[in-house]
Amino acid sequence: MLKKLIIVLFLLSLIVTGIWYAGIPDRWAAERIEGLLQGGRVRTELFGFKKTPFFGFKIEEVRIRHNRRQLLSIDGVSGRIDPLSLFLFGVRVSFTGHLSGGTISGEALLKRNGIRAAIDVRSVRLEGLDLMADSAIRGRGSLDMTVVMDRGEGDLYFEVKNMALKDIRKGGLYLPLKFFNDMKGAGSFRGERLRIDALSMEGDHIYGRLRNCVLERGYLKGTLDVVAESGFPEDSLVLLEPYKQAPGYYAIPLKGKLRDIL
């Protein structure tokens, strides 16, 4: 009896796999996945989608856009769909890909009422990210990040190593980013509201901390504290004088539209 059951299950798995691989058009499968990934003004497009045996798939390029602006381009994506999830609660997907010289991987449960996902980004070059193209932030760095989300809410943790950014001078604002070579932070998001719960930067004899920082609907509010130790060259702090609160301590207010600040 057990032997017959095993044979039946094996034959069923072959039939289901055959339907996935040969019976479902690639474009149809790609469009269904694109539909599940849409959210608000964020659009995901899959280029070069191909199914592989045993519910696998490969994608030449994944583009993520906000309105008409491209945010990310992920290349060489491969992954697998859990076939049981199709009958139970949604589409469960695991995937890996290449992002700006680094890697992105994760697992996601795609449902009509939202997405639940855990995503890891490793050794991604900041200077190669599409979303940085229209930003005032210039320079380089290696980004590691973890994002956990459930139906529009989630948490993120990030670190930028070997950071070498240029100072920002924009609209009367001065941000002394060139002094810092490491950054660590954590935040949370809900809908279009992003809160940076902790962000610290470190350089040679100088430290930075972002506090009370909230980004909502394109509007940023917060304060960047900069603390310079006695060994830091004083002539490098001339442009920070308008923000001086005490010897070696500067508080830079950040308030306005994000595009006007960064």
Give descriptors for this structure.
alpha+beta; 4 helices; elongated; 262 residues; single chain; 16% helix; 2 domains
Describe this structure in words.
- The protein is an alpha+beta fold.
- It folds into two domains: 1-110, no CATH class; 135-262.
- Helices cover 16% and strands 58% of the residues.
- The protein contains four helices and 16 strands.
- It has helices spanning 2-23, 26-37, 85-88, 258-261; strands spanning 42-52, 56-66, 69-82, 91-99, 102-111, 114-125, 139-150, 153-165, 168-170, 173-175, 180-190, 193-203, 206-216, 219-228, 244-246, 249-257.
- The strands form two sheets. It has a 14-stranded antiparallel β-sheet. The protein has a two-stranded antiparallel sheet with strand order 9-10.
- Strand 13 and strand 14 form a beta hairpin.
- The N and C termini lie far apart (68 Å).
- Mean pLDDT is 86; it is low at 4-14.
